[in-house]
Sequence to fold (104 residues):
Amino acid sequence: MKNFRNKPASSAAFFLYLSIILLSFGCSDSTDSNSGAISGQISAYEITTEGDIYVLAIKADDLAHIRNMETEAYPYKSQYAAGYRKLTGQGAYIIAGLESGKYI
Fold:
């Protein structure tokens, strides 16, 4: 396995991909229509490298831009990331302050 600590772009792309996969399985829209939040639980994975986990909320309309985001140094700062949460390990997350709409 590659050492991702020395390659921030590779690490960021890996965690973006992981986040997208986990978001599609582990989140649900908030039941409060005014909250503009997505929440979920990161718990069904095994990673052998250390590092932060970034869970991103991406508007469904921006799905075509995910590959572009993977090439950015910090995908969570991308113009296509509507919001994100940084985790230091497995656990619950909430991404608040989102506009109404569908997210991946």
The CA atoms of residues 69 and 79 lie 9 Å apart. Strands lie at 27-29, 38-42, 53-58, 81-87, 91-95.
